[in-house]
Design brief:
This protein has 77 residues and is mainly alpha-helical. The protein has 2 domains: 31 residues; 34 residues, no CATH class. It contains 4 helices and no strands. Helix 1 crosses helix 2. The longest helix is centred in the first third of the chain and has 14 residues. It is rod-shaped and about 55 Å long. The protein starts with 9 loop residues before the first helix and ends with a helix.
């Protein structure tokens, strides 16, 4: 396992320390778990065409061709 050194703000380090005490784990384990959870969450940056693919798969709206930009960029639902 590679070792990485990183500087944390005191407030964040305190939160990690408290969580480690609460869970009976080391600070390193708490940090690794938090990073894993954070990296597993979607970023909210899906490809713009994904919305069109989703619309196509669900049958899509009848006015898609007339309002393509609205559907693609989020003005319509």
């Amino acid at each position: 396992m590679d070792q990485v050194s990183l500087k944390l703000p005191a407030e964040l380090h305190q939160k990690i320390h408290l969580r480690a005490l609460q869970e009976g784990e080391s600070e390193a384990v708490v940090m690794r778990q938090a990073l894993e959870r954070g990296l597993a969450e979607p970023t909210g940056r899906e490809h713009p065409l994904q919305a069109l693919i989703d619309l196509h798969l669900t049958g899509g709206p009848v006015d898609l061709s007339a309002n393509l930009d609205d559907y693609l960029y989020g003005d319509k639902e």
